[in-house]
């Protein structure tokens, strides 16, 4: 995976992870809150059913209490009267009272008429619960609730039932009534189904927001990446063309210098040597003068070669450093052009790296070439300084500014700016009709590291 796709992945993956984490957190919190609400709702319904059972049991006891209190343990007439009252005392299709004695014999069951007179102590529901035995046990304990499965009269199917049983100890009877819980469970199941639907809707809404957001971010990154790539390709083409133009310009300059300078001097040397040879062969007295003129032309050619070599790469820059190199550059420039050139570097204490020194030298060289070709200046000054450990070079002239020259700078200025930008520096230009001020600045990182005190000593 190349760098562009790595950056794209680093932008997209955290977004997807964050959206997923937020979605899971919201879903978990919603599920937890909804489940708590459902549990509370179910608990309240069960509590309401329990309260209803207690009220119904109290109602039944109130209906038979007068008869029960005046009857004896073996008063069959009173028992028959109570049996009749409890048989008639029902409520709805599935609400009724039932009575079993403590031995498990059924006494009253208005919905299942085959049960009275039979012993059901060993009756077990589908879950293995001994229903009658447990109800009798609750009655003996003073009354209590018991949940089990029992046939629902209105549906003819087994359903969960919650019953409350109390004891009529004088007759050794267990009196009970119950309510079926299928409606409670149905309401709870409906609430859970609604919860699942709500969670699904939440997922859908989050996906509806998150997926387009991720796609938008992805598309934006791709567009920006494509745009940056096109810009980079364009800049690369411009840079390549600039390099080619610079090379061609430098070749043209060297060809011009070789043709107009060294070539002419060497031709003069050849003519002087030919003249001296002819005079020497004729024993002319002027042969020595011809040889001396040839030697002078040869010295001129040597000087021209040195000047070209110095322009290409000054030895003094490598041997002595930036300040002496700039001093030699100013001297040669002034001598060649007649423009007064001054170098001020008394306060310069920085030690720039070799590459940084070369960049500053080339900036100064290009600036002086611009002054010579375009500015029409009479005076030029170069100031080297090191404010706060940085490297600063200021070049000022009193010639025409860029506006007067009909432009804002060309290839040379772009080259100077790129040389400074390579080291994290800046090139600031102020120009007007009174002259131009060029300031090249490099950060501390362009300097050589300071030597330890022990090495200096």
Automatic annotation (TrEMBL):
Location of the Single Cache domain: 42-133
Enzyme Commission number, as recorded: 2.7.13.3
Subcellular location: Cell membrane
Keyword Translocase belongs to the record: no
Reaction(s) this enzyme catalyzes, per UniProt: ATP + protein L-histidine = ADP + protein N-phospho-L-histidine
UniProt cross-references to Gene3D superfamilies, sorted A to Z: 1.20.5.1930, Histidine kinase-like ATPase, C-terminal domain (3.30.565.10), PAS domain (3.30.450.20)
Transmembrane segments: 7-28, 203-226
Keywords annotated in UniProt: ATP-binding, Cell membrane, Kinase, Membrane, Nucleotide-binding, Phosphoprotein, Transferase, Transmembrane, Transmembrane helix, Two-component regulatory system
Membrane topology, from the record: Multi-pass membrane protein
GO molecular function: kinase activity
Sequence ranges assigned to domain Histidine kinase/HSP90-like ATPase in this UniProt record: 355-446
Stored SMART domains: Cache_2 (SM01049), HATPase_c (SM00387)
PANTHER family (UniProt xref): NITRATE/NITRITE SENSOR PROTEIN NARX-RELATED, NITRATE_NITRITE SENSOR PROTEIN NARQ
Record's protein name: histidine kinase
Protein species of origin: Devosia yakushimensis
């Amino acid at each position: 995976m190349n760098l562009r796709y790595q950056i794209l992945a680093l932008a997209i993956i955290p977004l997807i992870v964050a959206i997923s984490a937020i979605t899971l957190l919201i879903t978990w919190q919603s599920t937890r809150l909804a489940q708590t609400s459902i549990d509370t709702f179910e608990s309240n319904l069960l509590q309401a059913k329990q309260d209803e059972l207690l009220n119904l049991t109290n109602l039944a006891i109130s209906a038979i209490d007068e008869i029960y209190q005046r009857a004896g343990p073996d008063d069959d007439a009173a028992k028959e009267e109570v049996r009749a009252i409890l048989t008639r005392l029902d409520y709805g299709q599935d609400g009724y009272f039932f009575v079993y004695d403590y031995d498990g014999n059924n006494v009253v069951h208005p919905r299942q008429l085959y049960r009275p007179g039979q012993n059901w102590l060993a009756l077990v529901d589908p879950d293995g619960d001994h229903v009658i035995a447990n109800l009798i046990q609750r009655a003996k304990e003073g009354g209590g609730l018991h949940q089990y499965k029992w046939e629902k009269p209105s549906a003819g199917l087994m359903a969960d039932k919650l019953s409350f049983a109390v004891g009529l100890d004088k007759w050794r009877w267990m009196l009970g009534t119950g309510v079926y819980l299928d409606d409670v469970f149905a309401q709870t199941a409906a609430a859970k189904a609604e919860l699942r639907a709500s969670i699904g809707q939440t997922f859908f809404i989050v996906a509806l927001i998150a997926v387009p957001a991720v796609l938008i971010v992805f598309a934006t990154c791709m567009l920006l990446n494509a745009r940056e790539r096109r810009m980079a390709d364009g800049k690369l083409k411009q840079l390549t063309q600039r390099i080619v133009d610079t090379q061609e310009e430098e070749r043209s300059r060297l060809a011009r210098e070789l043709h107009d300078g060294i070539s002419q001097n060497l031709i003069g040397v050849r003519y002087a040597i030919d003249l001296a040879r002819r005079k020497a062969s004729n024993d002319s007295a002027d042969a020595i003068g011809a040889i001396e003129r040839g030697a002078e032309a040869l010295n001129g050619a040597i000087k021209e070669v040195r000047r070209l070599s110095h322009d290409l790469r000054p030895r003094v820059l490598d041997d002595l450093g930036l300040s002496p190199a700039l001093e030699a550059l100013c001297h040669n420039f002034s001598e060649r052009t007649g423009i007064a050139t001054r170098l001020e570097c008394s306060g310069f204490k920085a030690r720039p790296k070799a590459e940084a020194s070369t960049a500053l030298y080339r900036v100064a060289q290009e600036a002086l070439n611009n002054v010579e070709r375009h500015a029409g200046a009479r005076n030029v000054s170069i100031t080297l300084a090191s404010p706060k450990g940085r490297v600063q070079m200021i070049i000022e002239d009193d010639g025409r500014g860029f506006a007067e020259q009909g432009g804002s700078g060309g290839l040379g200025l772009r080259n100077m700016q790129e040389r400074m930008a390579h080291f994290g520096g800046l090139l600031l230009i102020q120009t007007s009709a009174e002259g131009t001020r060029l300031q090249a600045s490099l950060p501390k990182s362009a300097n050589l590291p300071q030597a330890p005190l022990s090495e200096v000593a």
